[in-house]
Design a protein that fits this description.
By secondary structure, the protein is mainly beta. It has one domain. It has no helices and 7 strands. The radius of gyration is 19 Å and the shape is elongated.
Length: about 110
């Protein structure tokens, strides 16, 4: 769901939503004083499908009648547990998205 709350040459918007992700594998990086180890895990206890929510605030501007450019900081949080283990772990991420959006059949 997107809400544009300032409509000018550069518009401001807020987004909230739900998504799903599928994990192909998990990478574990262990750093100690002696060395660094990388492992790829595919464990039966790890859950492959995750349901997450996201929130973002961003800026956008039209480049022409068919295209707009946007930039937005975003935060995602997984509602699904990482694994079936006794420890309750949830994944989360924060970052910046930018790109182009295209209008189809804009009238």
């Amino acid at each position: 769901m997107r809400y544009v709350f300032l409509r000018r040459k550069i518009a401001c918007f807020a987004e909230l939503g739900l998504t799903t992700t599928y994990a192909l594998n998990y990478k574990l990086k262990t750093i100690t004083e002696l060395d660094t180890k990388n492992e790829v895990l595919k464990n039966a206890d790890m859950l492959d499908i995750h349901f997450n929510g996201f929130g973002a605030l961003g800026l956008q501007t039209d480049l022409n009648e068919e295209m707009m450019i946007f930039v937005q900081p975003i935060f995602r949080y997984d509602f699904t547990l990482l694994s079936n283990a006794p420890v309750r772990e949830h994944l989360y991420s924060a970052g910046i998205e930018c790109g182009l959006r295209f209008y189809f059949n804009k009238k």
